[in-house]
Amino acid sequence: MAYIDLENLTKDYGQDRGVFDISLSIEQGETFGLVGINGAGKTTTIRQMMGFIKPSSGQAFINGNDCQKNSARIKQFVSYVPGEINFPADKTGETFLKRQIEKAGRGSWERCKEICERLQLDYTAGLKTMSKGMKQKTALAAAFCLGSDVLILDEPSTGLDPLMRDVFIDLIKEEKKLGHTVFLSSHIFEEIEQTCDRVAMIKDGRIIDQLTMNDLLHSKDKTYKLEFKTQESFQQFQALDYTFTDVKEEDLQLKININDQDINRLMDDLQHYDVLFFKEIKRNFEDYFTNVFKEEVNHV
Ligand SMILES: Nc1ncnc2c1ncn2[C@@H]1O[C@H](COP(=O)(O)OP(=O)(O)OP(=O)(O)O)[C@@H](O)[C@H]1O
């Protein structure tokens, strides 16, 4: 059994809404992203992992604990940031955060203050009067200050500006260094790319794809874009034995997919043609995600 194990997890709200047959295995120390558009099923999956809603069928386990039956035990080593934050009334950030540390019986106010400073959060403010961004920062401080073995974060950077998002990314990386396991949902490609070891894509309540980020970003299969100076070169080059995509006659441009081991052959070949430019198209998660979703739409 993996450290976090979702086995055919299903929550059926009727009319094809909910999540269906979600099976995911996450190892200890991994940072795992669940990515999907609005209404895809991210929150429903996470809430079942936290034991807040009962699955229609299937099970979720964290470190061998059934998330439904042993949710109290799970809370002893899991920090959670909900998608929608509802704080108790009449409290300042500070009283709330101190109470969270006390309730959890782990973490420290010193560490919490340090995180608040990095997030530029005024924790003396009243929770009720806090802006959306401040509330999000308070929830993050509460989650990260406990030193929990597992963090489960539902769209954790919602409401953060780009600078604070960078702080958040650093906090995740620090958790990773400590060997902690992170499960987060997001639709912010950059943060997924920078933090996640693996990603599952969810659409209409179903997992449609999974990938290892390293394989995507550091693949030996590369794509290059070329533009030729003359129509003649453009045409003759296409007679060679390569895989061409996005051929644009009018611009004399094309893309070529090639493995690193064939790059010298390509360089040699290019010397015989009038090439205006040649550049690598870097792979990124956003393009990958968009392609997967486009293919899904085409298959419907
Ligand atoms: N309590 C509920 N009753 C009925 N349907 C629900 C309920 N909660 C969620 N759903 C439906 O289940 C599906 C998945 O919703 P969910 O909130 O998990 O998606 P999400 O990926 O978290 O979306 P978002 O990014 O908008 O937060 C949606 O079709 C939603 O309308």
Radius of gyration: 24 Å
* SSE ordering: EEEHEEHEHHHEHEHEEHEHEEHEH
Quantity of strands, as a count = 14
**Cofactors, ions, other ligands:** adenosine-5'-triphosphate
Overall structural class, as computed from helix and strand content, comes to alpha/beta
Largest sheet: 6 strands, mixed
Beta-strand residue fraction: 25-35%
Shape: elongated
CATH architecture of the largest domain: 3-Layer(aba) Sandwich
Number of helices: 11
Q: Give the number of domains.
A: 2
Q: Helix proportion of residues, in percent?
A: 25-40%
Average residue pLDDT: 93
Indicate the low-confidence ranges by residue numbers.
none
Q: How is the largest sheet built, in terms of strand order?
A: 6-7-8-3-9-10
Top CATH class of the largest domain? Alpha Beta
Separation of the first and last Cα atoms? 34 Å
Short summary:
By secondary structure, the chain is of the alpha/beta class. Helices cover 35% and strands 30% of the residues. The strands form 3 sheets. A 6-stranded mixed beta sheet has the order 6-7-8-3-9-10, sandwiched between helices. A 4-stranded antiparallel beta sheet has the order 2-1-4-5.
Any overview of this molecule?
Belongs to the ABC transporter superfamily. Residues 4-229 form the ABC transporter domain. One of its GO terms (molecular function) is ATP binding. Keywords: ATP-binding, Nucleotide-binding, Transport. This protein is an alpha/beta fold. The protein has two domains: 4-216, 3-Layer(aba) Sandwich (Rossmann fold), CATH 3.40.50; 220-282, 2-Layer Sandwich (Alpha-Beta Plaits), CATH 3.30.70. It is 35% helix and 30% strand. It is built from eleven helices and 14 strands. The chain has helices at 42-49, 71-74, 93-104, 109-118, 132-144, 162-177, 189-195, 213-217, 231-237, 263-270, 285-299, and strands spanning 4-14, 17-26, 31-35, 57-62, 65-66, 78-81, 150-154, 181-186, 198-203, 206-212, 221-228, 243-248, 253-259, 275-281. The strands form three sheets. Strands 6-7-8-3-9-10 form a six-stranded mixed sheet, sandwiched between helices. A four-stranded antiparallel sheet has the order 2-1-4-5. A four-stranded antiparallel sheet has the order 12-13-11-14. Helix 6 links the parallel strand 7 (150-154) and strand 8. Helix 4 (109-118) packs antiparallel against helix 5. The radius of gyration is 24 Å and the shape is elongated. The mean pLDDT is 93.
